[in-house]
Design brief:
Elements lengths: L3 H24 L1 H8 L3 H10 L4 H15 L1 H20 L4 H30 L4 H9 L1 H20 L1 H19 L8 H4 L8 H34 L4 H29 L2 H19 L5 H12 L3 H5 L11 H30 L3 H12 L1 H20 L1
Helix pairs in contact: 1-6, 1-7, 1-8, 1-9, 3-16, 4-5, 4-6, 4-16, 5-6, 5-9, 6-7, 6-16, 7-12, 8-9, 8-12, 11-12, 11-16, 11-17, 11-18, 12-13, 12-14, 13-14, 13-17, 13-18, 16-17
Subcellular location: Cell membrane
GO cellular component, one term: plasma membrane
Pfam families: MFS_1
Amino acid sequence: MRNRWGILAILFVVRLTIAFQFQSVAAVAPLLQQSFGVGLADIGILIGLYFTPGIVLALPGGAIGRTLGDKPTTIAALLLMTAGSLVMATTDVWGWQMAGRLTSGAGGVLLTVQLTKMGTDWFAGKEIATAMAIFVNSWPAGVAISLLVLPAIGTAYGAGAVFLAAGALTAIGILLIMFYQPPPGATASATGSGRLDRLALLAVIVAGMIWGLYNVGFAMIFSFGPSLLAERGWSIAAAGSAISVVMWLSVISVPAGGYLADRFKRPLILAIAASLTVAALLAWLTRSDAVITILVLIGLVGGHPAGPIMSLAARVLAPETRAIGMGVFYTLFYAAMMLGPAVAGRLAKTAGTAAAALDLGALAVLACPPLMWLFERIVSVRKRRAQS
């Protein structure tokens, strides 16, 4: 297949498997607490473990993809994800649950870095914000599907069936990725120097921090939102369905944000305004009974910064530095996403309520606008030095 939008569709569906698998723990957290006798802090650690391998694998993951090639790397990653789900589905020992989660996470890391690089290869310089918005939209789509499907599976058949469903979906991803083809000239362009200059490296680091913090804030909604609603007397299925509203509306707001960024050439203003709004809504959610109204507003606004943020790294990465640059970008992202749920779970345990986790999410999103300003400053300095 050589049509870039068709390629994007393949990447979208394959990346969706990561979100579906990641959410498999949070979607049935109350069931896991009952089955294994663990608390919210333990659930937070298990959620965060999915991203732990990213701290050590994201950076070499870019180099691995550069050495082995796009398709072999993605297939290996999907095999790891499938194996991890099978381990979690077949054990009743908490330690093996953690081991399976780490294995799945290792595959998810490699797959995320490689798919992002593959998407950027096809769209660098042409509708990049729109393409990246559609690409990252696979995450809320996968989470939304999991919130609707997995609680019902877990209630009917147990947590093991939930993890089997996640493994089956990643196995389907292996079949889909067989249809991927690199863009013309991609192989030749990737053979140049892979070294990042100092300012480009700094810009990618800041971009990774922005993406990590924003996702920490957003992850608090679907990681601890169901537990927050359960505290208020909602059933597991009802809580999952309510939280899924955010994800389903994000399916609309994420590409809309990318389109608006490309159309009006004001991605920074759009991302800052949306971030401030989401931070306020997260803080409001823990202090109000207007749950559905707030969740709808978060869904309509929360997706807008995704495309602009994901396109930041592409602004300073050449084709030959793209693999290593995306590795750096995702190292920061995974560090934030590993620590965020674990810290949030600990705060929730100390406070005695999941509301503390969502308040932490509001603070994480609030930190993004200053970092966006810093990124623009670094890019401006880099341009001036290149012209002098």
